[in-house]
Every structure is written in C-alpha cells, then in structure tokens.
C-alpha cells in the first residue's frame, strides 16, 4: 500500500490556522480537517489531501470542524474530489456549515455530501467493493479468458 500510514497522523500549524489529522475507521480512512482553509493554509491542505488518493481504502473527508473556507480552500476540496473521481476512489465529504455555503458553486460535480461521520461510514459500508464491480473488457482480453 502506498501513501500515508494508516495510523493517527496529526499536523497542526498555529500560523496557518488549520489542523489536519487522519486515522483508519473501517471501512475507510478518515481525513479530518479543522480550522480555516484560506489563502495561508490552502497549499498545505491540498498537499495533505492529495497524499491520500492512492490509499487502498475508501476515504472520508471530514470537514465538520472547518470554521471558515474561502474559494481557494474550496478549490482544494474540489481538486480532491476530481482526483478521487479520476482514480475511481470511493469517498464521502462531511461538510460543516462553512463548507455547505460554497457547495452551490460546485455545479455539476454531484459531491457525495453527508452531515455526520457516521452517515459517511454507513454510506461507504454499503458501497460494493471496487474489485467486484463489472467493467468492459477488450476483445483481446475476452479471447484470453476463453483460452483462444
């Protein structure tokens, strides 16, 4: 498995006004973000989030403790959402009131938003394991499977 270790990892920077923490909580890895996501902290937050894209588990981005987020900070969340979608990573966003204020600006993205961590974990527990999802196969793969 690549990416951050699946133990509680906490980084805090009083100068940046943000707290980042991650820990395993089956069936997912929870990434907690607290404080303010703004021009001062956005680069730090963005790098931290993207580091989890290739973890071999579903992800919960728990922003329930985010007290302020500006457009630059919200773009970091949207970048995370885009990376999850492009890599096929199952994930859920737990949004604070501050994050919910900006959700209408994400038109067309259909973000998987819930109100609590428990809701997020329940949703991910009900998602079929990605290894069992059906996918299209090529003619060459079909011939190999048939023994031709």
Automatic annotation (TrEMBL):
It comes from the Bacteria. InterPro entries: STAS_dom, STAS_dom_sf. Residues 29-95 form the STAS domain. Signal peptide: none annotated. This is Sulfate transporter.
């Amino acid at each position: 498995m690549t990416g951050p270790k699946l133990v509680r990892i906490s980084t805090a920077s009083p100068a940046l006004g943000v707290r980042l923490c991650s820990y395993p909580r089956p069936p997912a890895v929870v990434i907690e973000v607290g404080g303010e996501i703004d021009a001062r902290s956005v680069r730090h937050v963005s790098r931290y989030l993207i580091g989890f894209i290739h973890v071999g588990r579903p992800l919960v981005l728990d922003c329930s403790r985010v007290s302020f987020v500006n457009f630059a900070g919200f773009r970091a969340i949207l970048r995370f959402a885009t990376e999850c979608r492009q890599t096929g990573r199952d994930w859920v966003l737990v949004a604070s009131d501050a994050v919910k204020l900006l959700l209408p600006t994400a038109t067309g993205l259909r973000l998987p938003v819930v109100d609590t961590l428990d809701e997020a974990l329940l949703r991910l527990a009900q998602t079929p394991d990605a290894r069992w999802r059906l996918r299209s196969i090529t003619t060459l793969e079909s011939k190999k499977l048939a023994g031709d």
